[in-house]
Amino acid sequence: MRKVLMGLGLIIIVAAIFSGALAPQLAAGFFKAKIMTGLSTDDVQVDVAASPPQAVLWGELAGLKAVAHQAKIGDVYMSQIDLNAKEVRLDMLSLFDGSLKVNSAESLLVKGYVTEENLRELISRKVDKLEDIAVKITPQGVTITAAAKIMGRKVEVELEGAVLDEEGAIYFRVKNLRLTNSLIGTAKIDSLRLMDDIMLTDSSKLPLEASFKDVTMKEGKIIITAER
Q: Which residues form the domain of 70?
């Protein structure tokens, strides 16, 4: 009987050690499922580091990295979203209500990449007046060309603007609007308002309670950076 109990105890100890060693991999699978749901994508890679590995069981992570492709934050799809966090302490109680919250982190950085195609798709969904939309992104701003029907006539539209962060939300804001037609002529945005600001996303949609820190326009893409 004593040998049986000792054997059973050894099995329990080995199982506990084994499950602890596998904890980072199990956690990575859990985070992947949460990110897939939260960002509306099935293309996600996650890596979790913990020292010791069992620290994951009480919510302490040495590192958390994730990469998601064609993922959605708010209203806009992004070609790629990168998450990098170090020395993370999770709120384990939040797991019971299906959420995922962070009590603290030494660093937590989220970067999202919005391509010209991503922005074109967003505008086509949000602005039904425009068709045949093309988007050009440069460090100087965003130029959109499209066709629209105004007063029963089809006209060529050119919008010049920028993507910016304002009060915790990311917008595309039109600065100049030109309509070209042999009869209608050219109109500026202060005399003919075709478009309001278009919201891409807001900070409430960001993972792990991050906040927007920077929006940078590059050639062909917009880089949105958030931190916690």
A: 2-112
Residues 104 and 162 in one domain: no
* 70 shares a domain with 163: no
Query: What are 24's two structure tokens?
Result: 């980072």
Q: Please state, in angstroms and rounded to a whole number, the distance separating the CA atoms of residues 119 and 222.
A: 9
Q: For 8, what's the count of Cα atoms within 13 Å in the CB-facing half-sphere?
A: 5
Instruction: Write out pLDDT tens, residues 152-207.
Output: 777 888 889 999 998 889 999 988 887 776 465 555 434 344 567 899 999 888 88
Enter the pTM of the model: 0.81
Q: What is the DSSP string of 188-221?
A: -TTT------EEEEEGGGSGGG-EEEEEEEETTE
Q: Clarify whether residues 87 and 172 are in a common domain.
A: no
Phi-psi region of 20 (alpha: psi -120 to 50; beta: other; left: phi over 0): alpha
Count: domains in the chain: 2
